[in-house]
Amino acid sequence: MKRYCFYVLIWMMSAGLQPMFGQERNRKPIVIIDPGHGGSDTGAIGINGLKEKEVVLSIAKEIIRLNNLLFKDSLGIYLTRYSDTLISLGDRTKLTKALKADVFVSIHCNQSVRKAAQGIEVYVKQGESRSEYLAKQFTLGLHKKLAFKNRGVKYGNFQVLREITHCPSVLLELGFLSNWEEAEHNGKDSSILAYALLIIETLRKFFEL
Fold first, then answer.
1. CB 145 within 8 Å of CB 4
2. Whole-model pTM?
3. Which pLDDT tens digit goes with each residue over 156-182?
4. Which CATH superfamily is domain 26-206 in?
5. Which is the most buried residue in 4, 20, 32, 88, by most CB within 10 A?
6. Alpha-carbon dihedral of residues 195, 201, 204, 209, nearest 10 degrees?
7. Could you tell me the residue ranges of all domains in the chain?
């Protein structure tokens, strides 16, 4: 995890020097970022008291900020929730369909009864090759650039994946809040920044921007 600070530093230093590049498009790609849980549904509670719903919302908001600051809004990013509110899973998928999104990314943190459990996982619906490809890019980036243990791409029957069939959809599990090291890591502003930057970078590469 020590490498994430260097990764963020390099990006921030180069952002003002590198021009935007990529293919001409009729419209920018539409990305739905889904911060899991919210409101009365806190999600996982960390061993240090950190709440999953707060971590993932912070990451989602940072994605929007960096997309504007570093990449001139090259991605059309929408959140399923912008505050500490509980949005039904059905409404999250309906929004994705209504906006005719090109990609859906749901952000979560993991937990386990085994306190030593560590690493990142990315879930997809089985049989969707483009979702699997994107998921592999996320696991590789989180492992190589942020130095997380790669627990791999897994299949899941989550509603937000099951009901989205028109575009690639993935569900990220960003570390275990039941693990002291990863719970402490996820509570840092620098970690939120690193997650957001990695997610944007992966999506831009996926869209060949």
1. yes
2. 0.88
3. 999 999 999 999 999 999 999 999 999
4. Zn-dependent exopeptidases (3.40.630.40)
5. 32
6. 160
7. 26-206
